[in-house]
Design goal:
This protein is mostly helical. It has nine helices and six strands. It has one domain. The N and C termini lie far apart (about 85 Å).
Length: about 280
């Protein structure tokens, strides 16, 4: 398939989206600072750093997805990979979006949201992804080139479902990670998250990667898009089932605890409470 010819975006458009993305990320970083100074919670700060690492890691997927970006002639290039230049706004925007989505999902899981409500959050995030990408494609910031599934609003229908599922998994995995890991060991999220995000993207999107490499027709790519979307939904379903199972195990008493006398440490506490009530 012949690549679509498209020139670089204007300097004004590049400056505007860079400023918007920077404001978004700075606001998110400010909220992370608030969480730390007010509640001594470093989770959002670690999520932002992990999101930045994950954005760099999934750069490998851009040639496989056949997405092409068009930075302006005087754009600030954050990094280059695989013969492509990635503008600063792209790095800032993706980091802010992944950090925000991961944080919202993590907080929803912390508050005990049911699987049904988390599916609703996923649906809302998919709608946001479709609208945001449709605007970006229409304004010429990037496009999906080569062999692609059927498009909606200029976007191959499968990718919003896949990419949003990856961000949901990022937040759910972070929730489980922070629940079990404490102290300085939480820094392990930085390499773990980037590898997990890149792995999830490849796991869900490999049918489309292979189809694009073979330059298949749109109907064939659409069939593979259905397969990749199904893989994304199934993976998210399994993750939500695991979350519910983990909650059940935490909330239910451990086997063998029933009928046991209270521990010596608990006896003084209960006696002190009873003494306080007598007063």
């Amino acid at each position: 398939m012949t690549p679509i010819a498209q020139g670089p975006i204007s300097s004004t458009a590049d400056s505007v989206i860079t400023a918007e993305s920077a404001i978004w990320l700075i606001g998110l970083a400010g909220w992370a600072a608030r969480d730390w100074f007010k509640h001594r919670r470093p989770e959002l700060a670690l999520l932002i750093c992990s999101a930045a690492a994950a954005v760099l890691a999934i750069t490998i997927a851009c040639p496989l997805i056949n997405v092409r970006h068009f930075p302006s002639d005087d754009a600030v290039i954050a990094y280059s990979a695989f013969g492509r230049d990635f503008a600063l706004w792209l790095f800032l925007k993706n980091t802010a979006w992944m950090g925000t989505a991961g944080y919202l999902v993590m907080k929803a899981a912390e508050r005990g949201w049911s699987a049904r409500r988390l599916w609703g959050l996923y649906a809302a995030a998919v709608v946001f992804e479709v609208v945001a990408e449709a605007v970006m494609v229409k304004r010429g910031f990037y496009l999906y080139d080569g062999s692609q599934p059927a498009r909606m609003f200029g976007i191959p229908f499968a990718w919003p479902f896949i990419l949003t599922a990856v961000m949901m998994l990022f937040g759910l995995a972070a929730f489980q990670f922070f629940h079990h890991v404490h102290g300085r060991q939480r820094l392990l999220l930085l390499p773990a998250a980037s590898g997990a995000v890149a792995g999830a993207c490849v796991c869900m999107g490999w049918p489309l990667f292979l189809g694009g490499g073979m330059n298949l027709s749109t109907p064939a790519m659409s069939a593979l898009g259905v397969l990749s979307t199904s893989a994304a939904l199934l993976t998210l379903h399994i993750m939500l089932r695991w979350l519910d199972h983990s909650r059940t195990q935490r909330d239910s008493p451990q086997a063998g605890d029933e009928g046991k006398p209270p521990s010596p440490r608990a006896v003084p506490q209960s006696m002190e409470a009873a003494h306080g009530e007598g007063r």
